[in-house]
Design brief:
Elements lengths: L1 H19 L20 E5 L3 H6 L6 E2 L5 H4 L7 E6 L2 H13 L4 E6 L5 H5 L3
Parallel strand pairs: 1-2, 1-3, 3-4
Length: 122
């Protein structure tokens, strides 16, 4: 009985860790400000296709979270900025890309910005 409880607790901990604990060293970056430090970085949009097609980000690689494991090798060997819909998506994307050897420079969440700011409409 104690073994089953230990297994359930361990699986639950791993699940919660991967989804909800922030990835160390991955800090927020505002991709909409003119900034020289963004040069040489690649933006990877990990939102689903329906959302990312409505709010396109110029020059971003559109690669939804479920496709990262299969298509990570299509990304150039540069620093990556993750553009995600929420913190869970950001954490999962960062963990997947780091496990594949990619360097994560930071992230930007779509929910933190108003729609007009995201797509550049004034």
């Amino acid at each position: 009985m104690n073994i089953w409880i230990g297994i359930i607790v361990t699986v639950s901990f791993v699940y919660l860790y991967r989804r909800y604990l922030p990835v160390p060293g991955v800090n927020p970056i505002n991709i909409y400000e003119e900034n020289e430090s963004l040069e040489g970085l690649v933006i990877v949009d990990t939102r689903d296709y329906q959302t990312s097609s409505r709010d396109k980000i110029p020059s971003a690689y559109c690669m939804p979270l479920p496709y990262l494991n299969r298509h990570y090798n299509e990304l150039p060997d540069q620093g990556i900025i993750i553009f995600a819909a929420d913190y869970v998506e950001k954490n999962l994307s960062a963990r997947i890309l780091r496990s594949k050897g990619k360097c994560i420079a930071g992230y930007c969440l779509a929910g933190n910005l108003e729609r007009n700011d995201r797509i550049g409409i004034q």
